[in-house]
Amino acid sequence: MSIDPRIMKTLLQLQWMPSLDFTGSSSPNILSPGSQEDPSLFGTLLSKMLSGSGSSLQENSGLQALNDELASITTLFKQPLPFYNEPDLSMANPTQTVFDPYINEASAKYGVDPSLVKAVIDTESAFNPNSVSSAGAKGLMQLMDGTARGLGVENSFDPQQNIEGGTRYLAYLLGKYGGSEQAALAAYNAGPGRVDRAGISSNEDFAQKLGALPAETQRYVGKVLAALAQYSPSNF
């Protein structure tokens, strides 16, 4: 009997598949292929092929039925199992956070790009409202106690208060340095006095006098700018 190689390939693939009842369950007991008690799809289909011995497959009246059955089984294995629903991620926005209402409110109030606020929070605390640094900075935007009091923040661990105060401070620094994000971020990390003493008041100054700032501040500004690119609306 001549066997179509394409059919044999499919049968060999089925030989190694667990026997499915097409409801998602599988049987771990797979008998040897072609045995009398073989419950697998391989055994069933192979028996049908062998029952047609003595005539060419092309002349066998059951060939079309076998091919149709193989096609339906192949299609079945391409479909997701009944108990699995693939999630729809088409509308997912990886830049959204549970703090967005507070961020958007504070950003609108003080005229700061919400993406920049998110980038600062990400870099400062990784969105952990209970974060405390070794220097004593607290909350999402890592406010020192003295700075928090000056900004009217009574509880730095309260996300809304912290974001309100941190965004207000960031807006002040942006205004002080003419909208320069690099200078404002450097001042947020090292303090305005350190940035002023370095003679930095613009993005151009920052690029030219970067070495006058602490290495930690240089890394900090780079991290925030990298995060800003991630949270920018143009990237999603």
TrEMBL record:
<dbReference type="InterPro" id="IPR023346">
    <property type="entry name" value="Lysozyme-like_dom_sf"/>
</dbReference>
<dbReference type="InterPro" id="IPR008258">
    <property type="entry name" value="Transglycosylase_SLT_dom_1"/>
</dbReference>
<feature type="domain" description="Transglycosylase SLT">
    <location>
        <begin position="102"/>
        <end position="202"/>
    </location>
</feature>
<comment type="similarity">
    <text>Belongs to the transglycosylase Slt family.</text>
</comment>
<protein>
    <submittedName>
        <fullName>Lytic transglycosylase domain-containing protein</fullName>
    </submittedName>
</protein>
<dbReference type="Pfam" id="PF01464">
    <property type="entry name" value="SLT"/>
</dbReference>
<dbReference type="InterPro" id="IPR000189">
    <property type="entry name" value="Transglyc_AS"/>
</dbReference>
